[in-house]
Amino acid sequence: MTKFEGKVVIITGAAGGIGKATAKKLAEQGAKLALVDLNLDAVQQAVSELGLSDANSIAIQANVANEEDVKAYVKATVDKFGKIDGFFNNAGIEGITANVEDYPTETFDLVLNVNVKGAFLGLKYVVPVMKKQGYGSIVNTSSGAGLIGAPGFVGYNSSKHAVIGMTKVVALEVAPFGVRVNAVAPGVINTRMMRQIEKNTVPADAEGARKAFGAAVPMGRYGEAEEVANVAVFLLSEDASYVSQSIYTVDGGQISQ
Ligand code: NAD
């Protein structure tokens, strides 16, 4: 019997690097998955790439910042599978790279809307289901940018600090009901998001930016999506049964808390 046999997990941002890598590991361990993403084609593609069956998976297009979409993905999951054991609250966007005086207000609004309101709405609608069940594990995706400052990232850093705040609040609210809430705080991870951040940061030399970001990591390299997925899967599993309100950095030693 594998660890996630019979378990139901929702993943947002499931078509992206970290979301898909986590879906793969959970599927290999027998989980039933609700894969949620803004990009329907990409999330359907993920379902077929991972070889998931109709009986064991559902692909849902949703904007995590839209309350009706969030209600709908939670309802679709419960209607199909009858419960939610795990929730990987992971969708996010990077915004742009600019110092505060040049940072467009509309970009700030957009980043906060997706990364903060999106994560909040996921918690708002998944928590009641888990409280009623009397069990469940939630993993929010913050970032190293949620723990330290990084010049040029006022929107993204503000949003990921907020994700840590809501992780701590909600963990305390739901602990008496058998529900755990933790966060992963990845460093520089090899996904579409870092390719975009490299271009945004040094448009004339994205490759140079990549080398510099990698060199700043004590382990001297980017992390892979699978390395974040391993930690998310642990926190979602019963192996982490006494772990809550914890922030797990996955960053090659870059940040010391
Ligand atoms: P990614 O761009 O590969 O994946 C993000 C996914 O989220 C995409 O599939 C995208 O379509 C989806 N998404 C974006 N906006 C959405 C919305 N409004 N509603 C629903 N889905 C939406 O990037 P990733 O690296 O896999 O990022 C996953 C999470 O990890 C994000 O929260 C990101 O901030 C965080 N993170 C990434 C890194 C990194 O270096 N890659 C570091 C720290 C934290």
Question: What does this molecule look like?
Answer:
- By secondary structure, the chain is α/β, with parallel strands linked by helices.
- Helices cover 46% and strands 15% of the residues.
- The protein is built from 8 helices and 7 strands, in the order βαβαβαβαβαβαααβ.
- The protein has helices at residues 17-28, 40-49, 67-81, 105-133, 154-174, 192-201, 206-215, 225-236; strands at residues 8-12, 32-37, 57-61, 86-89, 136-141, 179-186, 247-250.
- The chain has a 7-stranded parallel sheet with strand order 3-2-1-4-5-6-7, sandwiched between helices.
- Helix 3 (67-81) runs parallel beside helix 4 (105-133) and helix 4 runs parallel beside helix 5.
- The chain is globular.
- The relative contact order is 0.14.
- The model has no long low-confidence stretch (mean pLDDT 97).
- Nicotinamide-adenine-dinucleotide (NAD) binds at residues 12-13, 15-19, 37-39, 42, 62-65, 90-93, 114, 118, 141, 143, 186, 188-189, 191-194.
